[in-house]
Amino acid sequence: xxxxxxxxxxxxxxxxxxxxxxxxxxxxxxxxxxxxxxxxxxxxxxxxxxxxxxxxxxxxxxxxxxxxxxxxxxxxxxxxxxxxxxxxxxxxxxxxxxxxxxxxxxxxxxxxxxxxxxxxxxxxxxxxxxxxxxxxxxxxxxxxxxxxxxxxxxxxxxxxxxxxxxxxxxxxxxxxxxxxxxxxxxxxxxxxxxxxxxxxxxxxxxxxxxxxxxxxxxxxxxxxxxxxxxxxxxxxxxxxxxxxxxxxxxxxxxxxxxxxxxxxxxxxxxxxxxxxxxxxxxxxxxxxxxxxxxxxxxxxxxxxxxxxxxxxxxxxxxxxxxxxxxxxxxxxxxxxxxxxxxxxxxxxxxxxxxxxxxxxxxxxxxxxxxxxxxx
Length: 375
Description:
Elements: H1 2-18, E1 26-31, H2 46-60, E2 64-71, H3 74-88, E3 94-98, H4 102-111, E4 117-121, H5 130-140, E5 148-155, H6 156-167, H7 173-183, H8 189-196, H9 201-224, E6 227-233, E7 243-249, H10 252-276, H11 284-288, H12 292-314, E8 318-319, H13 324-328, H14 338-349, E9 367-368
Parallel strand pairs: 1-2, 1-4, 2-3, 4-5
Antiparallel strand pairs: 5-7, 6-7, 8-9
Helix pairs in contact: 1-2, 1-10, 2-3, 6-8, 6-9, 8-9, 12-14
């Protein structure tokens, strides 16, 4: 639910942000592990979500979102293809490929040679080898324009299972080598090797999983030259992540919009869980979900301090959207962009900037000037 809500919020914005970079008003999208496209209960899965976005963009803005879908399993592919054909009949440009995503990836990249490209990779297990991703992102798509972005599911549960192979004397070397390819080397094994000698092995293994996820994102950023942000997703704020969404872009603007979208999708996800528990004696979600207003109240002074530190370091005016990670800090993906406007106002009230954001329609476009305290 979280991933799909995030996708249906962000994909139209990607089209709006990058459509002008296209020479023929076309943006290319690939869902590399598309599944059936629609659930048996009739709800849209990732495939139909993208097709709906494409239909909406075509009718409302004239922008073509050309969709490519890849699915290996025959039964799932057949259902997916049926849905694709329905939308093709409505004028949506869409293609379904039977097989592994690696078999269609080059074709999609070639199709998007002069167009913005968005890659959505949501496997049930392991994703493509990192060398393959680097080949696409750093060698075939090395430029800022036309834009290239990636949203990928990095499964923490898969890392947990593979870490067990490292710790076991009977571990499956073939599985380990497969994950070596995904991670771009054997570096990840060292984290689990250390867990073998730890006093609390379960806690050490859990820490190793987090370290591997962080290391993966850092290496992807290093090898592609992209801005990479890894967002943890868990069943509750007090539990470890089940998976991480790895987002890669070359645009601070995209990074800003993605963080805002993550926060909004997270709020919707919690609300959906609460609705499902309405008939229960009490809501487990209400006991574990942080109050969004309380989180924002807590975040605003921290964001204000982040801004003050940024102004002091740069000694010049800054536009918020150019520094999403520096502005939001630990609250990136936790609060929506209005929190940044509140932080600017707080900074102004404290006399630390002459800027108050008044009159600027979009928060992300606010210019913040150094004050005496930060100059």
